[in-house]
Amino acid sequence: NAYDIRILDELRKVRNVGTWPVGLTAGPRVAQYCDVNSTTGKIKKYNAWGGHRPYTIDTAGFGVHVRHFLRDPPVLWNPKSRKAYSESDFLGQTNVSKWD
Description:
The active site is at 87 (proton donor/acceptor). It is a single chain. By secondary structure, this protein is of the alpha+beta class. It has one domain. Helix content is 18%, strand content 20%. It has 3 helices and 5 strands. A 3-stranded antiparallel beta sheet has the order 2-3-4, with no helix packed on it. The longest helix is centred in the N-terminal third of the chain and has 7 residues, at 7-13.
């Protein structure tokens, strides 16, 4: 993956789980959460490949605060995840709703 250097500024703002658009994914040209409530900041609608997955997001499209790796047990990637479900399995361990 290639990233714009400005993404580092966005990563520093992540307090739990943060998301951003990803270009040139497996399906559509851009995968992103596309409608956010301006009052609450919560996601209302999203556009991503594989809508059947619990978290329809590409690995390149999210960041997780370091505290998730420091807790006991830590958030870990599952090498036995089904195809296309590694992101959902990983994010599911954070106990963050996809609508938060």
